[in-house]
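Thanks for the sequence, V.! I ran UPF0056 membrane protein right away. Repeating your input here for the record:
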Amino acid sequence: MDIPAYLNALTGLFVIIDPIGAALIFHSLVPPGEKRHRRIMAFKAIIISAVLLVVFGNYGEPLLEQLGISIHALRISGGLLLFYTAFNMVTEEIEYTKAEKKKDISVFPMSIPLLAGPGSLTLSILLFSKSGEASADIAVTAAILSIFALTLLLMLISKYLKKIIGKTGDEILRRFLGVILAALAIQFVYDGIANITG
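Predicted structure:
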């Protein structure tokens, strides 16, 4: 396995998916005391999101080629989209509202747009297209599975996580990760422009 590709993918995915923030949002969307429902929602959301990222990451580029869109154009547009996501992470206030009744949150809002939203789907295409080799593709897939395994764990213990980190801790972490994501986004834009002009 390509360790540098794994670490690069792991860092990018950790920043954009934000497992801690996702777990805290998950906690607020599931009624307290519903342990079985909580487990089902967590597993469903993770499985759907992981499948979406791996499939779209592997087959998104050929689909784009059929539409006449180059990977360099995607790098620029994806970078701008990621920058917009990062800007919102740094500047927007996040609201936590307690859920009162049981409902299926696995597809919306947990999988789409939180875990497998436009930003993470774009990032997965960029990571797979950048790798180009089988060992690097395995590394990116392993990074996706690692991030979602961590996210699942944090979702299942979100009640305790909420007590430990609190709202202030989540806001600090969210804004810090937003700054990192902004830098990653600018790098994607730079790579896309450099390849088009080069």
